[in-house]
TrEMBL record:
Organism: Adineta steineri
Subcellular locations according to the entry: Cell membrane; Membrane
Membrane topology: Multi-pass membrane protein
InterPro entries, sorted: Choline_transptr-like
Function text: Choline transporter.
Family: Belongs to the CTL (choline transporter-like) family.
Ranges that cross the membrane: 51-79, 99-125, 132-155, 161-181, 201-227
Protein name per UniProt: Choline transporter-like protein
Top-level division of the source organism's lineage: Eukaryota
Single GO MF descriptor: transmembrane transporter activity
Coiled coil stretches, renumbered: none
Length: 312
């Protein structure tokens, strides 16, 4: 029976698979989203970001060297000379240059504190990586709210516009990433755990810390130079006002008519000098009433420029 079955001319087609097809199906490859293809080719992926980044870094560096270094040098010379306040004129005493040393020490201290904070944050991430993200967001929001309140109370309500916009953007960002914070915490812990198995990562982090510290120094020089330049324009306005007053008093002192006898001269010279002096006082009062708003406007402008410098 079996021989009869196999003796018939029956064609049996058996599909044979190649080794490559079998190997491709036997090996369970992960889906593409689990093993993404990473492009390790060198070069910038975003050319616009490269242009903006290098342009911003170059502007900060040039302004810091051109405007900031001379101011820092003048502060050093003034501090080393130890000149008493009695030798200073009223213009120098009231000028912003008189307090450049205070500003230099304040910004220098802020640079040092910022660098130490970055270094402490690096080691803090290894101890409690999960809670750092939440603490950072809360601290940023508290600082922005405090800045808005202080500018509204001490400066002007116009100076609160930009910090308020940044605060709103921060709150929107926090609401968008709120559910992803636990996921980021897990990845941050894994990344910090890799530091113990790969000590070379610590060297890279320290190099980035040094670069950040140098950036703080360049930013400090830029702020110092811009504030000094802005104050120079304000001093020029004040000097114009003083020059008009000086000219008026000079005219009153030079104002004279024909030579008179001694007794008549004693009596007559008081009236024109007194009259011109009164006119100069009234004229100066009018100029002060016209320019009394100018320091407030300059203060608001300086606050806005200072906030924009902080964003850099």
């Amino acid at each position: 029976m079996t021989d009869k079955a196999f003796s018939n001319n029956t064609i049996v087609t058996v599909p044979f698979k190649s080794y490559e097809d079998g190997a491709s199906k036997n090996d369970d490859l992960p889906p593409p989203y689990e093993s993404p293809k990473i492009d390790f080719s060198s070069g910038w992926k975003d050319r616009w970001f490269m242009i903006i980044f290098w342009l911003h870094a170059l502007i900060v560096l040039v302004i810091g060297l051109v405007l900031g270094m001379p101011v820092l040098n003048s502060v050093y010379i003034h501090a080393s000379s130890n000149l008493p306040d009695a030798n200073l004129t009223d213009e120098e005493r009231n000028s912003f240059d008189r307090y450049l040393g205070v500003l230099a020490y304040a910004l220098g201290g802020a640079t040092a504190v910022g660098g130490l904070t970055s270094l402490a944050t690096f080691f803090l991430l290894q101890l409690c990586a999960g809670r750092v993200i939440m603490c950072t967001l809360v601290i940023v929001i508290v600082i922005e709210i405090t800045l808005v309140v202080v500018l509204f109370i001490t400066v002007h309500w116009v100076a609160c516009i930009m910090p308020l916009i940044v605060l709103i953007i921060t709150l929107i960002f926090m609401s968008c990433v709120w559910k992803r914070i636990p996921f980021a915490e897990v990845h941050l812990r894994v990344g910090c755990a890799a530091l113990h198995s790969h000590p070379s990562v610590i060297l890279i982090a320290l190099f980035i810390f040094i670069v950040q510290f140098l950036w703080f120094i360049c930013w400090f020089l830029m702020v110092l130079g811009i504030m000094h330049t802005m104050n120079g324009s304000m001093v020029l306005v004040a000097n114009k006002d003083t020059a008009v007053t000086t000219d008026i008093y000079g005219t009153s002192a030079v104002y004279a008519t024909k030579p008179m006898p001694f007794n008549a001269n004693r009596y007559e010279t008081k009236r024109p000098i007194y009259g011109i002096t009164q006119n100069s006082i009234s004229y100066n009062t009018q100029r002060k009433s016209l320019y009394h708003r100018e320091p407030q406007d300059n203060q608001v402008l300086r606050s806005i420029v200072g906030f924009l410098l902080l964003l850099s």
